């Protein structure tokens, strides 16, 4: 037991040392240009329906509020990664842009649910597909789309959706793929 604990402590000490060394490097990184990053833009051709249905209009408004903001998908990158890559001075801006991304993904799900519940399935598909193109890692985005594709007999689109999910850089990737596979049976 003592040998096991000694090995475990040595591994942990090495990991901590590596982390603090990397973090120290990151905290000394200089600002880099972030103007040419792969920002997400909300397309003008999304089918906003402008209705009195509160759930739909609220979600649409929340998405429209993001239209003029910078949106970045930084999923899978730690703050240390961001500081090393773009400089410590850009971290707060990048955090805001990433928060905008998460808000967008949540609102797409909220809007799609409300659209489906109120008979606007075609419009919901457009928003869900935009979420996928934006690299959303929310499983609901994939599951709702796979369910609609399955209901409409569009197995090829489900296969394409699965291929997209396989390229995700997120801890939920395997779960998402498993959920999509359920619609391929």
Explain what you see:
It comes from Lachnospira intestinalis. This is Tetratricopeptide repeat protein. The structure is a single chain. The chain has 185 residues and is mainly α. The protein has helices at 2-27, 54-64, 79-86, 91-117, 121-133, 139-151, 155-166, 173-181. The chain is globular. The N and C termini lie far apart (48 Å).
User: Whole-Å distance between the termini?
Assistant: 48 Å
Total E-strand runs: 0
Mean pLDDT: 90
The helix/strand class is: mainly alpha
User: Helix amount, in percent?
Assistant: 55-70%
**Based on CA inertia axes, which overall geometry fits?**
globular
Instruction: Please write the string of helix (H) and strand (E) elements.
Output: HHHHHHHH
Strand content: under 5%
Biggest sheet statistics: none
* Structure annotation, total helices: 8
Rg result: 21 Å
């Amino acid at each position: 037991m003592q040998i096991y604990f000694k090995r475990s402590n040595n591994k942990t000490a090495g990991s901590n040392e590596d982390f603090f060394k990397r973090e120290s490097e990151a905290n000394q990184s200089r600002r880099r240009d972030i103007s040419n990053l792969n920002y997400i833009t909300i397309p003008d051709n999304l089918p906003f329906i402008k209705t009195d249905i509160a759930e739909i209009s609220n979600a649409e408004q929340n998405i429209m509020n993001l239209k003029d903001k910078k949106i970045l998908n930084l999923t899978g990158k730690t703050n240390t990664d961001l500081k090393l890559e773009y400089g410590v001075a850009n971290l707060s801006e990048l955090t805001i842009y990433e928060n905008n991304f998460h808000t967008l993904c949540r609102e797409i799900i909220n809007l799609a649910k409300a659209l489906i519940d109120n008979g606007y399935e075609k419009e919901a598909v457009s928003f869900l597909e935009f979420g996928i193109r934006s690299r959303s890692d929310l499983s609901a985005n994939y599951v709702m789309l796979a369910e609609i594709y399955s209901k409409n007999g569009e197995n090829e689109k489900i296969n394409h959706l699965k291929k997209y999910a396989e390229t995700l850089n997120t801890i939920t990737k395997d779960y998402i793929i498993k959920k999509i596979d359920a619609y391929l049976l």
